[in-house]
Request: fold
Amino acid sequence: MSQIDEDELLAELGLEIAPLKAATRTPREERIIAGFEDIQRFYQTHGRAPLHGEDRDIFERLYAVRLDQLRRLPEAQTLLAGLDSHGLLPGNALATVNVDDLDEDALLAELGIGSEPVDLDDITVLRHVRSSAAIKAAEEIAARTPCKDFESFKPLFDEVEAGLKQNLWITKPFGKNASIEAGDFFILSGLIAYVAEVGDTYKTPNAETNGRLRVIYSNETESDLLLRSLQRALYKDSEGRAGSRLIRVDSGPLFSDIAEPDDIESGTIYVLRSQSSHPFVAEHRELIHKIGVTGGKVEARIAAAAKDATYLLADVEVVATYKLHNLNRTRLENIFHRLFGAAQLDLTIDDRFGNPVKPREWFLVPLHVIDEAVERIRDGSITGVAYDPQTARLIS
Reply:
């Protein structure tokens, strides 16, 4: 039998050859259909539509949210009418919550998704997909209108801008769960943002505080957005100095042993005394102190002191600590180096590999003088004094 092509074979069998119709659905329509097919498969497996509820499987809750959205989407009703063999689309939504009222975090909580690490190899995890809640939050941030009474706020912005130039105001990174209150200043997308008003607050389904804000911007615009939306924008923004909290340096104690409710703890000042057997250190042990600042636990910082040339390759004793609040740790370290620079320990030791190391942050300063310096930083009088190594005291 001679070889015949596929078309000839179909003709021999009496089958009519019809040209294939080109797909006419848009990518959006394809996604809608694919999402609905997932819901249909759930129905075929369980014999019912997916339901909401904390006791439900994550995928059932996801499908329940999706089904509610499809029921409210006119184009989905038309597109899926011929595919809805189980009658899932007609009728009221089964949701116990209104998805449109949830912000992004609340929506994730409703779906049972927290902040746990995601298994990147799990094919059921959606990646690189921007949720409608995220889009909605971005739109709220972008929806700024001219501020008609900006002149009444202008003196506040002028004060902050001048204060930044004179180092009377400082910036701090905005923490993910940091508070937002009326009167707060932030830097967002390169603009200074001022929280002028905070409306009535309420708890979201995942127990987060939310409420409507009036935010004024330095470009003479304002926005009416949710507190949680502003928190997300500050946390995620990475343009320039954006995503920062602005703090007046003299707006309360820089640090103290007792944290006030509105303070932001940023670390600990620690003073160490070396147990080194080096002759000079042993002779002046009560006078030689290391002053440092850490954002973590002091114990963890000094755990390997005996193996670290920074700590003179010896164990250390913690002789004083002070909690930091509303303070830039780097600037504080610079203050101590400027103040006690003339009394910095001039000592070179070999590290474990025989390389010469000159440790910093060790000073020939009595502990009581360090205590006095801390008090002067607290009350703001530190700028008017200097340390005199000859008399071992602070002088005007």
About this structure: The chain has three domains: 27-101, 150-248, 265-395. Residues 202 and 208 are 8 Å apart (CA to CA). Confidence is low (pLDDT under 50) at residues 92-131, 133-142, 238-242.
